[in-house]
Amino acid sequence: MPNSGAAQTGLPIMSSATVSPVGEVDEPVCIVSITVKPSRLVVDVSIPDELNRRTTPERAVHVLERFPTLREHACVNGRGRTFGSVIESTSIAHLLEHLAIELQTRASAHEAATFVGTTEWLDERVGLARIQLSFKDDLEALRALRDAVRFLNDMLSM
């Protein structure tokens, strides 16, 4: 049975009815809210700076050096069947989705676990996106999300 206890995630959070604010709100990627549902997280994320909202070929190289298997993630997109076909030019929110899935996969005690996600812009003009992530263990998923946000914030602050 999944754990429930999202109160101390270590994520930079602007405000939330579900999770108390943690971290700095001036980070490049900031979690606005997290809702833990029976088998998925619903995460609203803010990327206020327009220059930080998309990947670039240089950013893709940096990410793939640390997470080479992201290239092979299945991904429904207009360019191909893998995340590798869009990693050089996709939203940072979409990259966050795949990073959180990758980190869950690495940490999962559930052999042959498959994780899925979706990303959509709620308001692209202001940089507000919604990511949904499946999980087997909610705390494992929250840790993966936290670590993915930290990685992205470090990369975008370089």
Short description:
The protein is an alpha+beta fold. It is 28% helix and 18% strand.
Features:
single chain; 158 residues; alpha+beta; 4-stranded antiparallel beta sheet; 3 helices; globular; disordered N terminus
pLDDT < 50 runs, ≥5 residues: 1-8, 15-23
| Number of helical stretches of at least 4 residues | 3
By DSSP, the count of extended strands is 4
Strand content: 15-25%
Helicity, in percent?
A: 25-40%
| Class inferred from helices and paired strands | alpha+beta
Biggest sheet details? 4 strands, antiparallel
What topology, given as strand order, has the largest sheet? Answer: 1-2-4-3
SSE pattern, N- to C-terminal: EEHHEEH
| Spatial gap, N to C terminus | 40 Å
Q: Mean pLDDT, rounded to whole units?
A: 88
What coarse outline follows from CA principal-axis ratios? globular
Radius of gyration: 14 Å
What do you see in this structure?
- By secondary structure, the chain is α+β, with helices and mostly antiparallel strands.
- The protein has a domain at 55-156.
- 28% of the residues lie in helices and 18% in strands.
- The chain is built from three helices and four strands; from the N terminus they run E-E-H-H-E-E-H.
- The protein has helices at 57-66, 92-107, 138-156, and strands at 30-36, 40-46, 117-123, 128-134.
- The chain has a four-stranded antiparallel sheet, with helices on one face.
- A hairpin with a 3-residue loop joins strand 1 and strand 2 (40-46).
- Helix 2 (92-107) packs across helix 3 (138-156).
- The longest helix has 19 residues, at 138-156.
- It starts with 29 loop residues before the first strand and ends with a helix.
- The model is unreliable at 1-8 and 15-23 (pLDDT under 50).
